[in-house]
Amino acid sequence: MAELRLDERLENDSYPITELPLCQLRLMDDTRYPWLLLIPRRPGVSEVFDLDEADQQQLWREASRIGCAFKAMLGADKLNVASLGNVVPQLHVHLVLRHQDDEAWPGPVWGQGEPRRHDLDSLAAMRDRVLAMVEGLDLD
């Protein structure tokens, strides 16, 4: 598998959690919304259709299973799944948990207020929770 060369904006705005069969799993640095990123480890990919069919299926498998478990773990009202790429062209999929009382509800999270960064303790706690959640999933 090719080594992932992460766009610097993704690297600066998120923290690594683990490597999955296809993607690197990362946590966005904004405590307002529980927010994960899936970034396929494929060079030069900006669209889902740039992946071969097997990788497309694997991406959806990882997004669906992690999204479902993440939503259940944190009791969210909704899981938003998005792949925009307007600012960062490197293919990445957002898994954003939403609650009806969050500050952006019912609108999108993008461009809403200022991010509230994780402190080291909250980052470590969330990383540990997500890692434990992922370990129980069949992602192959």
Automatic annotation (TrEMBL):
Transmembrane segments annotated in the record for this chain: none
One of the Pfam families matching this protein, by short name: HIT
Stored InterPro entries: HIT-like, HIT-like_sf, HIT_Hint
Coiled coil: none
HIT domain: residues covered: 36-105
Listed name of the protein: HIT domain-containing protein
Originating organism: Halomonas mongoliensis
